[in-house]
Amino acid sequence: MNDNKFTNRTDKSNGNFKPPTFSPAQISRSPRKISSFDKAIRRSVDSSSDIVEATNARTTSKQPQNYQKLDYKTARDSQARRGNEPVAKLGKNRNKSRKFILRRIKRIIGLVLVVLLLFVGAIAYWLIDTYSTLKSSIIRTDALSMMKDNSAASTFLIVGNDGRSAEAQSDVEGARADTIMLLIHTATKDSLISIPRDTMVELPPFIDKNGIFAHPGEEVEEVWAKINAAYSYGSAKLLVETVEDLVGLKIDHYAEVGFDGIAQLTDALGGINLCYDQEVNDHDSGMVWTPGCKDVNGAEALAYSRMRHQDPLSDIGRMLRQRTVVQKLAAKSTELVTSGNLGNLWNIFKLKEVAKSALGTLTFDENTSITDMYKFITYFKSATSPSGYMDTIPIEDADYYNSVLGSVIKVDKDDVKNFIIELTKT
Question: I want to staple 22 with a disulfide (CB 3.0 to 4.6 A). Which of 16, 26, 133, 168 is the partner?
Answer without folding.
Answer: 26
